[in-house]
Structures are given as structure tokens and as C-alpha cells.
Amino acid sequence: MKNIIEKKSKIFVAGGSGMVGSSIVRILIQKGYKNITYPKRSDLDLFDSKAVSDFLKKECPDQIILAAARVGGIETNNNNKHLFLYENLKIQNNIIFSSHENNIKNLMFLGSSCVYPNNFLTPIKEEDLLSGPLEPTNEGYSLAKICGIKLCNYISSDFENRNYFSVMPCNLYGENDNFSSETSHVIPALLKKFHRAKINNNESVVVWGTGNAKREFMHVDDLAEACIDLMNADQFYDIINIGTSVDIKISQLVSHIKEVTGFKGKIIYDTSKKEGTFRKILSTERINSLGWRPKRKFIDELKKVYNSAIKRNLL
Question: At a CB cut-off of 8 Å and minimum separation 6, what does 283 contact?
Fold first, then answer.
């Protein structure tokens, strides 16, 4: 079952103020979608199952894009596995099951490449899900996302008038990223660290790990465009990867960030610190077969993110 989401269709973006959700809302508006709702946390508590159900019953959206989640970098994930599991399960269950109970036909769930087994040396295909152990540092978050994927899959399988599917993006970055020193991901964390080292005339910057781990990075607007394309795709997949199919070493990323920020000192790698899985690159055969490719160039967008963060005093 596949419905066409027209420009006048009502679309609910859960998590519309976060980096991913705000990008999806902005790109939807650019593409001419007129009827988008994305309530703030103060207006709709996604932890409150009754509030979520009442909202969905009243609004009856034609399409839900579930981008709301508790997210964070390697340290906060590793130190708060219980919260990442519990809170993400609660948000997901409230929205996904309430959507089903309120007869909402179309739902897109935003997962993460973290759901896949640890240390794949080759591009990870969608069918590799649950084929091996997870990366321990973010296992709580990963398990929650896997449950969301499976719940969407089971609902679509058990009810022919449900189109609930999941997208798995690679590591994301963008101008609305989280620059908190405690909870940020690798790109905003490094931008902030190198910028402050430059401002303070520090002789060196310490980076966690060996620098040899590899990551695949994609601008969040490329993900947003892919998600919108998938709302109306002729081919239905219960799970689909979205990425660039290109990864780089963390040491290469660090060199790029050193150049972008203008830091002139030394880089010291603290090999006693955790650096997560060694390699995590996604196979994008499915999304590419639908005609989608990422458009944005990494270095150009990295400079924009840095300049935007400076203007907004986030560093």
C-alpha cells in the first residue's frame, strides 16, 4: 500500500526543532508543502502517551515523520545507556502505536546506522540488521532504534493499509547541530574544541582515540531531501539506508577541522579514550536505485557550519 503525499497533505514532523526535524521542515516548505505541523516540546510532550494520542486523533496527519529522539555523542551515550534506551523507546512507542491506533496510514521512522553490527569492514546492507553484536558504547540507543524499526515493520506486515517504514542515515552534521560540550557529536565537538584552542592560543588539542577509526558523514539537508523523495517513492522498502558511500578517517576529519578553524598548534591523540566502532559505512544501493544521490560537498558545508556557529555564539 502506497499513498501519494500531495503538497496540500497534512504532515506531522515529530522533533521539528532538532537538527534533523528542522531541516526536514525547511526543505518541505521549500518544495511547496503547505500543511506542516511540528509542535514544540512545550506544546506536545512526546513522553505523554495520552497527549500524543489526543494530538494524533485531533490532527489526523496524512504523513508522520518521526525525527524525535534523545541523541548524543560517544561519552554521553556510554554513560547513560539506560536513558537512551528508556526515553527513545517511550517516544517511539507513543508515536508509532498511537498512529496505528488512530488509523494513520503513513509513517516514516528515523533510525541510525548505529543499529547495525559493530566493525563491519564492508558497506553495511539493510539485511545485515541483527546479524552480529552492537557497538557497546551506544548499545542502549541502538536497541531502542532497532525496536522502532521492528515495530514499524510488524505493523506494516500485519495490516495491509499501513505504510510504516524506517530510514537509516549515516553520521549527520548541519547548521542546527548540537554544540553542547557534554552531549554533542564528533563534528560539532571538534569544531568547538579547535575554535576555543585557537582563541586561547593553545599549543595543542587533544583528540580521543587513535584517529584511525572511519566514519561516513552526510549533510542533514541531503537526508531531508531523501526522506521527502521516499514519501512518494513507487518502491516500498521496510528499511532503507541513506548515506554518501564515502568514509574518512577521524584523523582526516581532524585535519579538515584544523584547517577550517585556522588552528595552528599540534594535535595529540589520546589512545586511552574510546573511539567507538572501527568502521561504519552504509550500502546505498536501495536509495540510489530510486534515483537519489547526495548533492552537498563536505568541506564546503563544514565551513558553513563553522561560520554559522560563530555567528550564533555557539562556540
Answer: 123, 124, 125, 126, 241, 245
